[in-house]
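pasting input
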Amino acid sequence: MIRFTKVSKHYPTGTTPALDDVNFHVARGEFVFMTGHSGAGKSSILKLMYGDERPSSGDVRVSGFHIGTLTRDEVPRLRRRLGIVFQDFSLLEDRTAAENIAFALEVTGSRVDMIPARVTKVLAQVGLLAKAEAFPRELSGGEQQRVSIARALVNDPPILLADEPTGNLDERATRGVYQLLLDINAQGTVVVMATHNLDLVRFGGQRTLELRDGKLVFDSGVDVGDDA
Amino acid sequence: MNLLLREALIAFRRTRTLSVLSITTIAFALFVTGLFGLVALNMRSALRNVAERVEIVAFVYRGTPSMQLTAASSDIAAFPEVLEVQYVSEEEALVRARRDLVEFQEAYQDLEINPLPPSLEIRLRPEYRDAKHAGDVAERLHGFEFVEDVRYGRDWVERLDALRQIAGFVGLAIGAAFGLVSIVIIGVTIRMTVLHRAREIRIMRLVGATDWFIRGPFLLEGALKGLIGGILAAILCGVVFGAFEAGNFGLGMGLTFFGPLEVVFLIVFGVLLGLTGSLVSVGRHLKKV
């Protein structure tokens, strides 16, 4: 599903590379933690995955797309095959939870009559059916992140990318969101989660990639075949 | 389409102050452009009124047979520059002199012999009322053997030409400057709207919206603002024009307002400004996200 081959990334302003010869492969159905200090390269890897950056050298393949040669027109097509979740939730403040989720379907041209049913389904999946009409400010941090995960899932993406999804959440909400991501993974969606939270990583026992100064220094997983 | 309209209206409501600001800006920019257009329009019609008086008079030798004059008149009328030719006989010239030149009325009253020569009065077509064409026609009139002298007020026509050129040039320069300033100001206000909604654009991109989908509501919003701004500008121009006309500044001539076509043009110009401003601002922003 995701394959990084000898990937390096230099930013014009940086003196050292943000990523330096990174190789790994994520297979169908995997759950992968990505850890490391701030600036270690976690966000760079995620940005490469969703086509926000291009590799300086090497090859990045995500769900059949070559990121290095991705055209501007292909970016939306790639993103419709991904769900993306951020630390800051990235919800529109003046729309309800249901509207925020529907927004992702509307802007990608889904059939209007299909939208309510799909919104209801993902809201149920993240356990927020009762809060469908609540605005983000009326929701707790954990609930807001659930809405954002629901939005990421509504297009049935094969891959879910989460950049520090629990960074702003307390212990309990963190466990809740993590459990939700595990449930999603159990249904076949690949989940890549960047996190600082080492407790979560230890407690979870999932495959872990550890980055330091742009290098992949540790990979607990075993490469299982080539299906990228 | 429904979605597009809904998103544009939501954007409108959400950034109400900013929307009002951009509409006001567009309205005032177009208002100034419109006012300038009115000045140019009226100046042009004033100049046209003056040019109306460009007339060539060919004085004819006394005793020229009227057959010859009639034939020549139709020849002259066939010149491409000429609108009409009128023969003024000696008697008619005297009648006119007695009527028009009040100061000399008594002098003309007592005359026993008519001192005035007969003449051909030639009016040019509007597009030829300038020094060069008047000169050309005068030259050709000299060629007729019965023509004694040709007058067309050369200095005066040349001055009119210069005035027309200056007016045209100043008009173009000021018009272009105002147009440009409007585009820049509108671009900036729409850019503020875009920045205000940067987060929303980022989210749209992240969930896989195409560039055109993201542009759509902004373009519609820009066009809508341009439309309202244009209508406001037309109304403002009308109000100011009305006040000016009612003020009656003793210009001694009627003022002209825009025709319906020009009003539509002003509004369409507003819509185009709004669209262009949005397209440029969103385009520049999209390149960065």
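fyi Chain A has two domains: 1-81+158-228, 88-156.
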